[in-house]
Amino acid sequence: MSDLLYKNISNSINLSQEDFNHFMKPFEYRKFKKKEVVLKEGNYCNFEGFVLNGCFKIYYLNENGFEQTLYFAVEGWWITDIDSLINNVPSILNIEALEDSEVLMISKKDKEHLYETMPQIEKLFRVMNQKSSVALQRRILSLTGKTADKRYLEFLEKYPGLEQRLTQQQVASYLGITHEFLSKIRKKIL
Amino acid sequence: MSDLLYKNISNSINLSQEDFNHFMKPFEYRKFKKKEVVLKEGNYCNFEGFVLNGCFKIYYLNENGFEQTLYFAVEGWWITDIDSLINNVPSILNIEALEDSEVLMISKKDKEHLYETMPQIEKLFRVMNQKSSVALQRRILSLTGKTADKRYLEFLEKYPGLEQRLTQQQVASYLGITHEFLSKIRKKIL
C-alpha cells in the first residue's frame, strides 16, 4: 500500500526503510466513494492526501458559476488546497472523488511535527513544492497563452489514458471550454 | 544592501548573523538599466535574483503574440523561471527591467552548494516554494475565475503604489486585457 508513496518520495530524497516507517506513521488510510466530497469551498483545508488509486477533480467556481478544474489527481498525485493549508484561510477549491479512491492522508499538525523530528523531510517538501510551482506556472501559461487545441493535446500527454475515465464535460472543465467546443476539437484532431 | 534580504529570510527561518554571512557569500550584486533584458525566452535560466529596488516584468507571449505578464517583481521579490531552472529546459518566460534596478543574484550551482553546506536553507526554500505555489494558484484562480474589474482591484491591493510606476499598457498586460478596456474599468471604479 505504501510502496507507491515510497517510490514517489524516492524521486526526491533517499530515505532508509527505518526512516520511511517513521515518516509513514502519521498517515491515515482513507477510502472515498465516487462523488464523495473531500474538501468543500469555504471550509479549512488541514490535510494533504497522497492518491493510491482512483481519481479526484480539484476545481473552483468562476464568476459565472462554471466549474473550472485546476487539475486531476490520479495515482501518485497529491491533493490539498495549499493556500488554505498554509495561510489558514477558507478554501476556494473543492476536491471531489470521480471514482472510488484510496488515499493516504496526513494532517497539517502531523506534517509540521515531521519537519521537527525528521529534518530530511524539509528537502522532500522543498523539492515537491518546486514541482508544484512548476506545474502551476505551466498551467497558467497553458490556460492564458495557448489555444484550446494545444491545451487538449497537452492534457492527453500529461494524463495518459485518463480521458477514457472522464466524461467529456469533465475534460472540458479542465480545458476551460464548453463540451461542445471540445467535441469540435476532438473531431478535428482525431 | 543585504538588510532587505535578511529581513525577507527572517520571515521563514532564524539565521544567526554568522550563518547569514555564509549564506550571502555566493550572491552577486548586479545593476540592470531600464529596458535591460535579464532573461530571454529560449535561453536557459540558471539564476535566482532577489530584487533590492526597481521593478521587473516577468512575461510570456501568448498564441496571438500578445505579451501576458505573469507578475511584477519589485523590492523584496524574487525573479527566475522556476521551470527552466529546475528542469533545465529553455525558458518560456522573459524578464525585463522596467526601471533601473539592483538585484542580488545567485547561480543554480551555488544555491545547490548552499543546500549541501547549510541544511537550514532547505527549510527556507521549502517555505518560499510554498509561498510561490500559493501565489501561482491565486494567479490562476484570478485569471480564469474572476472578472477584469476584480483582477484590477486585486492588483491595486497586491502592489500598493505600483500603478503610478507603470504604463497603462503594462498594467493591462498583467490583467490580460487591452489598455482600452482597462481605461473603462478605471473610469467605472475611480
UniProtKB/TrEMBL annotation, chains A, B:
SUPFAM superfamilies referenced in this protein's UniProt entry, alphabetically: cAMP-binding domain-like
InterPro entries, A to Z: cNMP-bd_dom, cNMP-bd_dom_sf, RmlC-like_jellyroll
Domain Cyclic nucleotide-binding residues, every copy: 14-114
Name this protein carries in UniProt: cAMP-binding domain of CRP or a regulatory subunit of cAMP-dependent protein kinases
Gene source species: Chryseobacterium rhizoplanae
Taxonomic placement: Bacteria, Pseudomonadati, Bacteroidota, Flavobacteriia, Flavobacteriales
